[in-house]
Amino acid sequence: xxxxxxxxxxxxxxxxxxxxxxxxxxxxxxxxxxxxxxxxxxxxxxxxxxxxxxxxxxxxxxxxxxxxxxxxxxxxxxxxxxxxxxxxxxxxxxxxxxxxxxxxxx
Amino acid sequence: xxxxxxxxxxxxxxxxxxxxxxxxxxxxxxxxxxxxxxxxxxxxxxxxxxxxxxxxxxxxxxxxxxxxxxxxxxxxxxxxxxxxxxxxxxxxxxxxxxxxxxxxxxxxxxxxxxxxxxxxx
Lengths: 106, 121
What we know:
Oligomer: heterodimer
Radius of gyration of chain A: 13 Å
Structural class of chain A: mainly beta
Structural class of chain B: mainly beta
Low-confidence stretches of chain A: none
Largest sheet of chain B: 7 strands, mixed
Strand content of chain A: over 45%
Low-confidence stretches of chain B: none
Helix content of chain A: under 10%
Mean pLDDT of chain A: 97
Radius of gyration of chain B: 13 Å
Number of strands of chain A: 11
């Protein structure tokens, strides 16, 4: 099993500021990584796949980077609708998810 | 547009079998893509359950494999989940989702709204 570790668990950010979320894989997964956003009571929404490719309709303020074992999701200027929980998921092998990062209003 | 909708009992007794169906609209399952189930216990993270292709090929989470059956019904554009011998640890919101077009392991780009299943006597 590939273990995905996200940090921090909670990130407090002011609207308009930049948010940087990290995801680490227990072994190399190349760029087989996705990021999701989940709001309370809703299904996850795909933001990024292939570590850096935005999904259809995802704003340009969301960007992903990394390869191997270290990955980053950056939200360049947080909007009110971006406060949510973010999960990374690897699909280099059978899929596993990170524990999530809660992005909250500072 | 492509939509997925989960359906099934919201309450299952311990030791019994949990059964859910995902109905796909706006896209024919026979047209390709892998289709999956993911669950989320209350207040916790996401766990992949398994995937299926329209041909019937299945891919299961090793930790659930002994209790799990995923099947597809292309005539009704549905796929289903059966999880046997359930315990309270299987209480979760269950999501169905569309996976990749080529690989059985990929990101999930379209999700159902999810259905809460509680295991309790």
